[in-house]
Write a structure and sequence with these properties.
By secondary structure, this protein is mainly α. 70% of the residues lie in helices and 0% in strands. The chain is built from 5 helices and no strands. Helix 1 crosses helix 4. It is globular and about 30 Å long. The model has no long low-confidence stretch (mean pLDDT 86).
């Protein structure tokens, strides 16, 4: 339930913004990405809650994962 509520809050914000606070990548995205990524990678958020119900969250996660620095960081700590 909690993941569904948080996912809904993120979905609402990201449905009208490229990033959490608007059109620019900020510390808010840096701080929130690890726990969203952990939901998806370690807790099967996509299967248990239905990631397809949150397309803006998926788009945001994919955009952040595509950043070279994030890719390097995930090689050190994968979640």
């Amino acid at each position: 339930y909690q993941r569904r509520v948080h996912g809904g809050v993120l979905e609402k914000q990201l449905s009208t913004n490229e990033y959490l606070l608007g059109s620019e990548y900020t510390i808010a995205d840096i701080a929130n990405f690890p726990w969203v990524n952990c939901w998806i990678e370690m807790y099967n958020f996509g299967e248990t809650v239905g990631l397809s119900d949150f397309p803006a969250v998926q788009r945001w996660r994919d955009a952040i994962r595509a950043r070279p620095a994030v890719d390097r960081g995930l090689k050190v700590c994968p979640f």
